[in-house]
Task: inverse folding
């Protein structure tokens, strides 16, 4: 492999890692807090919702 192939692979790997990093939070879109969160015993210093 030559230098341009290595640079292309490194650039592709960087783009892939950035894509994975920014897409990972999308997995939590369906996991919204529900009644279980409202029922938690929160400390007195907890900010209001």
Result:
């Amino acid at each position: 492999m030559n230098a341009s192939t290595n640079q292309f692979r490194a650039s592709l790997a960087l783009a892939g890692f950035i894509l994975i990093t920014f897409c990972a939070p999308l997995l939590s879109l369906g996991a919204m807090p529900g009644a279980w969160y409202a029922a938690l015993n929160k400390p007195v210093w907890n900010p209001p919702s």
